[in-house]
Amino acid sequence: MSGLGNGLGAQPGGASAHARSAPLRVDAQRNLEHVLRAAREVFGELGYGAPMEDVARRARVGVGTVYRRFPSKDVLVRRIAEEETSRLTDQARSALGQEDEPWSALSRFLRTSVASGAGRLLPPQILRVGVEAEDSTVAGETGEAAGDEPRVPQQRQEAGTAAPRAASRQRPGPETGAEDLGAGAAELLEVVGRLVDRARTSGELRHDVTVADVLLVIATAAPSLPDAAQQAAASSRLLDILLEGLRSRPE
């Protein structure tokens, strides 16, 4: 704690000193909760490029208070991103455990995640990591030819250029954000991958839909609107349309 707190703790009378210092700890915890809540709201509305001053104003604390808890904006962004990635992973696990039907499990995960607003705080790097990780494994797991691989990685490379395809097969590293996101990102990709694989195998999910596509749906199907009821209605309608686009159709 700060020097002020240490000074109080050093005064005679252990019990009374503890009583005087306890409110500082409570206030600090309350400020932390306010800052984290405000950061989720601000970053959810404006993106991770929003300044720390906006977070402080929303939390109704001084910007110095924010920096005392988070010495740089990167530290705060990492904290929020890690928490939201963990929340999405829990939601994916819950869908796997509570739904026997593959399509119902995938739909449940998407609806829960979009309704929670977690998609607006999904780290942008994870979409790229998702694309590259799946691109490097799908062909090996399914034995498909290169021409049958998911379309998203193919759309990312320029016509006539082989380098991006070769690069996408490398182990994700700092340039993709995988190491920055840590084990939580890999865990999310693995659990969502199980949802996708099950739905693909059942024939209900289009064969070209990737984990990256599913995460992109989560990231885009939760618009930020000023009216809560309007936002919920818009999210539900948009997700209905996107889910129809993900479903396979009889040929």
Note down, in words, how this protein is organized:
The chain starts with a helix and ends in a 5-residue tail after the last helix. The protein is an all-alpha fold and 251 residues long. Helix content is 71%, strand content 0%. It contains 13 helices and no strands.
Mean model confidence by pLDDT: 74
Give the terminus-to-terminus CA distance.
66 Å
Number of helices: 13
Largest pleated sheet: none
Characterize the overall form.
Answer: elongated
What portion of residues is helical? over 70%
Strand content: under 5%
The radius of gyration computed from the alpha-carbon positions, rounded to a whole number of angstroms, is 22 Å
Total strand segments: 0
Layout of helices and strands:
Blueprint (H helix, E strand, L loop, with lengths): L2 H7 L4 H33 L5 H8 L3 H7 L3 H26 L3 H15 L7 H19 L8 H6 L6 H6 L9 H4 L1 H19 L9 H10 L7 H19 L5
Helix pairs in contact: 2-3, 3-4, 5-6, 5-11, 6-11, 6-13, 7-12
Give a quick summary of the entry.
This protein is mostly helical and 251 residues long. 71% of the residues lie in helices and 0% in strands.
